[in-house]
């Protein structure tokens, strides 16, 4: 997060001192849990969960496809296409949720 954003958050959470470098997580977590409305906090958590699950699932599918031959599992066209389709869907979901979380509105 930018220095300007951290300073704004610092004021919102009621701190009179200037924020030190490295306290971004503390500031954002305190703001998220103490200042934001519960429904906004829940929305953010759902979006991050959707992003994380999609990104990790896609990564796991790619790893499985890459190491399959090393453990004597033959690649097939069906496996490759299924993996490709699933990764495209998962990556699209991850990108959409990332974009939603990055909006300034």
Itemize the secondary structure elements and their pairings:
Blueprint lengths: L2 H10 L11 H12 L2 H30 L9 H26 L3
Helix pairs in contact: 1-2, 3-4
Description:
- This protein is an all-alpha fold.
- It has two domains: 1-35, no CATH class; 37-105.
- It is built from four helices and no strands.
- It has helices at residues 3-12, 24-35, 38-67, 77-102.
- The longest helix has 30 residues, at 38-67.
- The chain starts with a helix and ends with a helix.
Characteristics:
105 residues; mainly alpha; 2 domains; elongated
- What percent of residues are in strands? under 5%
What oligomeric assembly is this protein in?
single chain
Chain-averaged pLDDT: 88
Count the domains: 2
Estimated radius of gyration: 20 Å
Helix content percent band: over 70%
Gross morphology: elongated
What is the tally of beta strands? 0
Give the low-pLDDT segments. Answer: none
Q: H/E order of the elements?
A: HHHH
By secondary-structure content and strand pairing, the structural class works out as mainly alpha
Major sheet attributes: none
User: Given the structure, what is the number of helices?
Assistant: 4
Ends distance:
16 Å
Overview in brief:
This protein has 105 residues and is mainly alpha-helical. It has helices at 3-12, 24-35, 38-67, 77-102.
């Amino acid at each position: 997060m930018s220095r300007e954003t951290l300073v704004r958050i610092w004021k919102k959470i009621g701190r009179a001192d200037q924020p030190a470098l490295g306290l971004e997580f503390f500031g954002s977590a305190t703001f998220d849990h103490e200042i934001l409305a519960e429904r906004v906090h829940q929305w953010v958590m759902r979006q991050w969960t959707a992003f994380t699950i999609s990104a990790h699932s896609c990564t796991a599918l790619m790893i499985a496809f890459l190491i399959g031959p090393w453990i004597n599992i033959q690649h097939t066209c069906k496996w490759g296409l299924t993996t490709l389709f699933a990764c495209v869907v998962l990556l699209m979901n991850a990108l959409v949720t990332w974009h939603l979380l990055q909006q300034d509105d």
